[in-house]
Specification:
Elements (H helix, E strand, L loop, with lengths): L2 H17 L15 H6 L2 E5 L2 E4 H9 L3 H7 L2 H23 L6 H25 L5 H10 L5 E10 L16 H16 L4 H8 L3 H4 L4 E6 L5 H9 L9 E3 L2 E12 L2 H27 L6 H4 L21 H7 L7
Length: 333
């Protein structure tokens, strides 16, 4: 594990650590009431006058962003974080000895960190009180019915030269030749030829082609627009006209229209509804507080006036003799 990674994690956690006061200069630890209490929260590292107890260190670990938790769960990562944490505590102790806790900038930043922690705690409190009923989920699911539509389809792709789907070693086709081939295959299908067999033999989408053109089920936004529009507009059992996309020419056979089951998307719907309610609660809190803004401060300054037009000074006309010199006639050969 790179040291820089843990140092960055510590930097991200630092606001919470300082705001909680864990980075303050170490005061003499109070004597444990009993040996049992001291054993429950032992000093796990120290340097000079700075001592760090188990509870302090573990509290610091909890402030790390989720992406760093896996790192510090390993012995090497935890030890690296411990080194950086102890260094931070030493720096804070030296800073306090120098009186930096009274520096106006430091005071302002500590105040901002404290307010940020309180705001985060209040946000979590509001969020924990938000509930979403089954009826609300059902309504959101019904209102977003189109979003959850799915089509089960097969396709055959004929790719012209230059397409990302063009197969190496296969005869290259011009755009017109690829279109003509796709039209011919569609006529064969309309005449009773097996869609699946033609897909296996002719499709330049070799992945689906090996499965007889089977694409499985897909929803809105999963295919390129032209393909999606044709597939969703076609009835079950029908074959689309030849469809052109950036990959080439497609023949699409629609096998089913259905929807993503509610239970499959319920967690996403619930999350979105909670976010909507949370934003509404925050907006209401702000509106009820009747915020005002200093327009003189927040209004952008007017754009600078364009520079005044400068009248060019009069110049004498170019003598004809000079003009001939600057633009001689081209000689005939």
């Amino acid at each position: 594990m790179k040291k820089a990674t843990i140092v960055m994690a510590l930097a991200l956690a630092a606001p919470a650590l300082f705001a909680q006061g864990t980075a303050a200069p170490a005061a003499p630890a109070p004597k444990a009431a009993t040996a049992t209490a001291a054993d429950a929260d032992p000093i796990i590292m120290s340097a000079g006058t700075v001592t760090v107890r188990k509870s302090e260190f573990e509290a610091a670990l909890k402030t790390l962003p989720a992406e760093y938790q896996a790192m510090v769960s390993q012995p090497a990562g935890r030890k690296q974080f411990a080194d950086d944490y102890l260094r931070m505590r030493l720096l804070a102790s030296e800073g306090a000895k120098a009186g930096l806790q009274n520096d106006p900038d430091v005071v302002n930043q500590l105040s901002l960190m404290r307010e940020n922690l309180l705001a985060t705690a209040q946000l979590k409190k509001i969020e924990s009180g938000i509930t979403v009923t089954d009826a609300e989920v059902q309504k959101a699911y019904a209102n977003g019915a189109k979003e959850y539509e799915q089509v089960k389809a097969r396709h055959i792709l004929i790719a012209p030269k230059g397409s990302a789907a063009a197969q190496p070693g296969k005869k290259e086709l011009t755009d017109d030749e690829a279109k003509a081939k796709a039209e011919d295959l569609r006529k064969q299908i309309a005449g009773g030829a097996s869609f699946e067999e033609l897909a296996k033999k002719e499709s330049d989408d070799t992945g689906s082609g090996a499965r007889g053109g089977d694409l499985g089920s897909f929803g809105h936004g999963q295919m390129v627009p032209e393909f999606e529009q044709a597939a969703f507009a076609t009835k079950v059992g029908e074959v689309t006209p030849v469809v052109k996309t950036q990959f080439g020419y497609h023949i699409i056979k629609v096998e089913a229209h259905d929807s993503t089951p509610l239970e499959q998307v319920r967690p996403t719907i619930e999350k979105n509804l909670k976010q909507t309610k949370l934003h509404a609660a925050l907006d209401a809190m702000k509106d009820n507080a009747h915020p005002t803004y200093n327009d003189a401060y927040f209004t952008p300054p007017p754009p600078p006036a364009p520079p005044a037009a400068v009248t060019p000074a009069a110049t004498p006309a170019t003598p004809k003799s000079d003009a001939k010199k600057t633009a001689p006639a081209t000689k005939k050969q």
